[in-house]
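Summary of Year 1 activities. Much of the first year was spent building the evaluation harness for sequence design. The harness presents a backbone, in tokenized form, and records the residue chosen at every position. We chose the following record to illustrate the format because it has been used consistently in internal testing since the harness was completed.
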């Protein structure tokens, strides 16, 4: 996999249903049409994160179908939906076996083979914090979970449910939100729980080339203690679960890739445990809500941290980028994440221009493709697949004003990639007003410059190359210049 890889997130269930509608027949992971593979390869993806393939929880499905919130979200864009088209959350994992809907483990093996033959890795989900409330493990090994046995909990009774044997078990929980009532909370202060979940991760690692670990920070010792201290006490285990788990997998598969969904400023802590990439939610929030200087400040972070961050402007948890950012701003934000160091995550439906977010429990995503959006991303991904964006040296630039006292250049984000004799200069006006700057091309060996997004050739004089070309950018306009150094 290249440095700064491109990762395509696919919601497995709704994607297969979309293919089913196109082909007029049911589709499993084993019989994806060849043109689909060819398009993924041609677009330049290094990996596919196939989200939500594990065995469906029937209890979680019932809960989802009666959820007023899920129904409301669906009704906003699909007023006449059928409740039967709501399924379980893929993050209420019943078992780490591929659901029959997808064709089972054998079909996934065919899917992986088709990707790997094209040089593309397969990533799957691993949910370390919890399992579905009807997972067989809840009945067979209640001690793997936060439990008070058959004694009702002395506090927070609404955080617990009873299994068939009458044991009180905690729902999965993020400490800042209400419990996830379709899940059971694992207890990593129990060494046997760790052994079991490591064995589950080892089994998953035999089916793919990497995992995206859901809410990875919830399994940290301190976070577990602070969330559940009334039930597990305060003495921390000697070692972090993730240290044990990553070491166990990499002792057999040293190239296996680990991605962590992580928040709360714990990204560096998780990276130090050995994760290859961690979510950069700070960048997402600044792109959505802050200005260019705030984004520039974030990009001054230590280079290794940047290289191990995964950039995104959308995923299955976030509002769709077109609605969250607005059309032009979303394309500028997409250009930013596509040209920064670190992994670059692109949900399939972002590339197709889905107009609004759909809950992951809803199986249909039959919106019409937004052709201009699709064409923009096809062009962008083609441009940033150049080796300079993957093997080159990245440098953050400060935009140069056209004249003293001119301030609109502060709204222009810019950086340079250099590899051997190739330079790539990226400029983005990340504001709703026009902005101008001076673009110096000192050190170029030829005076021919190409702007990649529009495909325009520019001939510079030696004087203009030295003094700098004046550039005026429309609101949210992006430029990527290629030149010889």
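For this record, the design step produced the sequence shown next.
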């Amino acid at each position: 996999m290249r440095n700064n890889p491109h990762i395509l997130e696919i919601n497995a269930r709704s994607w297969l249903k979309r293919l089913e509608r196109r082909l007029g027949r049911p589709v499993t992971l084993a019989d994806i049409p060849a043109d689909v593979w060819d398009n993924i390869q041609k677009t330049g993806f290094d990996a596919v994160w196939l989200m939500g393939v594990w065995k469906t929880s029937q209890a979680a499905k019932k809960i989802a179908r009666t959820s007023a919130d899920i129904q409301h979200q669906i009704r906003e864009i699909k007023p006449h939906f059928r409740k039967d088209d709501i399924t379980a959350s893929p993050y209420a994992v019943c078992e780490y076996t591929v659901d029959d809907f997808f064709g089972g483990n054998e079909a996934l093996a065919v899917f992986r083979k088709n990707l790997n033959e094209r040089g593309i890795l397969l990533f799957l989900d691993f949910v370390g914090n919890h399992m579905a409330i009807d997972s067989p493990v809840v009945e067979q090994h209640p001690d793997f979970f936060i439990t008070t046995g058959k004694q009702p909990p002395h506090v927070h009774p609404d955080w617990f449910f009873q299994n068939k044997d009458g044991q009180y078990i905690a729902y999965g929980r993020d400490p800042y939100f209400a419990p996830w009532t379709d899940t059971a909370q694992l207890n990593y202060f129990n060494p046997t729980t760790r052994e079991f979940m490591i064995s589950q991760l080892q089994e998953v690692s035999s089916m793919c080339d990497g995992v995206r670990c859901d809410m990875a920070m919830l399994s940290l010792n301190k976070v577990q203690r602070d969330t559940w201290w009334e039930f597990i006490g305060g003495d921390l285990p000697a070692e972090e679960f993730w240290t044990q788990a990553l070491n166990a997998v990499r002792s057999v598969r040293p190239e296996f890739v680990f991605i962590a969904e992580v928040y709360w400023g714990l990204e560096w802590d998780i990276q130090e445990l050995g994760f290859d990439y961690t979510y950069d939610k700070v960048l997402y929030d600044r792109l959505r809500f802050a200005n260019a200087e705030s984004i520039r400040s974030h990009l001054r972070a230590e280079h290794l941290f940047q290289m191990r961050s995964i950039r995104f402007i959308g995923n299955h948890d976030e509002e769709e980028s077109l609605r969250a950012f607005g059309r032009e701003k979303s394309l500028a934000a997409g250009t930013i994440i596509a040209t920064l160091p670190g992994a670059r995550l692109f949900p399939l439906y972002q590339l197709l221009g889905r107009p609004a977010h759909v809950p992951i429990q809803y199986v249909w995503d039959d919106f019409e493709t937004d052709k201009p959006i699709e064409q923009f991303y096809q062009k962008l991904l083609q441009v940033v697949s150049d080796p300079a964006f993957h093997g080159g040296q990245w440098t953050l630039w400060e935009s140069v004003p056209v004249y003293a006292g001119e301030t609109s250049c502060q709204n222009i984000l810019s950086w340079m990639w250099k590899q051997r004799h190739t330079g790539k200069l990226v400029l983005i006006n990340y504001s709703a007003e026009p902005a101008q700057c001076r673009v110096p091309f000192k050190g170029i060996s030829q005076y021919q410059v190409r702007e990649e997004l529009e495909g325009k050739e520019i001939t510079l004089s030696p004087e203009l190359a030295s003094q700098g070309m004046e550039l005026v950018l429309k609101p949210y306009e992006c430029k990527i210049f290629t030149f010889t150094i």
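DSSP finds 19 helices and 21 strands in the chain. Quantitative recovery figures across the full test set are reported in Table 2.
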